[in-house]
Amino acid sequence: MERKVKVAAVSYLNTKPLLYGFRNHPVMEMMELSMDYPAKIAQQLIDGEVDVALVPVAIIPKLKEYHIIADYCIGAEGPVASVCLYSDVPLNEIKRIYLDYQSRTSVALLKVLVHEYWKLDVEFVPTTGDYQQNIKGTDAGLVIGDRALAQRKVSPYIYDLAENWTRFTSLPFVFAAWISNKPLPAKFIKEFNHATGIGIQNIPAVVAENPYDLYDLTTYYIHNISYPLTPAKRQGMQKFLGYLLKED
């Protein structure tokens, strides 16, 4: 290979198991790794600034070509805990929803659930920074990632998006996958896939490295997040992408 493969990933707690195996792995000699939040990485992949990224699956329609290069993803087969609609009031009383700027997939999933499943008439409010303090009265908020785990201690009503998707479709959900915007060498893909799976087999070690008081990470990594990219998850992903085309 003439140059190193540029890889981008998210610096959330939910990605720690996927990144754990990269340290001291031979694949690191073939790649450069950078970290940012999901929507930023997604744009880098779309713009060709990186070759591979752990990206929200909602960006797939925006890529000229895409290849899923690993057998692991950020997925859920039930409650995911860290992608939720938070509210002071029940669903049918919500008037406005603040949207988390950090993830396109979560926003797109929320809109599918609002329109197709819950059948709500609400106003969506884009955000650019912290907005959790606005979640009060009939104003709800979609919060993702580590901040979502913290918000669980604050809001009385919590609507887990992955859990509701599963109720709606009887399929698991894929939030993010390792996607490349071009074909990559088979040797790199093999080593990369091996590296990204190591942490999944070593959850206690990952938990030990990431002390976290607000939520039990063993529960999070084993019961909330489901990392293997199974045929059922691929089916759920295709169904979701079908809804995205419909929404457009």
From TrEMBL:
Taxonomically, the superkingdom here is: Bacteria
User: Which transformation does this protein catalyse, written as a reaction?
Assistant: chorismate = 3-[(1-carboxyvinyl)-oxy]benzoate + H2O
Q: List the pathway annotation.
A: Quinol/quinone metabolism; menaquinone biosynthesis
Molecular-function GO term, any one? hydro-lyase activity
* Enzyme superclass (EC): lyase
Pfam name, any one: VitK2_biosynth
Q: Which UniProt keywords apply?
A: Lyase, Menaquinone biosynthesis
Biological process, per Gene Ontology: menaquinone biosynthetic process
In the UniProt record, the signal sequence range is none
EC annotation from Swiss-Prot or TrEMBL: 4.2.1.151
What does the sequence similarity comment in the record state about its family? Belongs to the MqnA/MqnD family. MqnA subfamily.
Function of this protein?
Catalyzes the dehydration of chorismate into 3-[(1-carboxyvinyl)oxy]benzoate, a step in the biosynthesis of menaquinone (MK, vitamin K2).
The protein's matches in PANTHER family, at most eight in alphabetical order, are given as: CHORISMATE DEHYDRATASE
Name assigned to this protein: Chorismate dehydratase
Q: What is the lineage of its organism?
A: Bacteria, Pseudomonadati, Bacteroidota, Chitinophagia, Chitinophagales
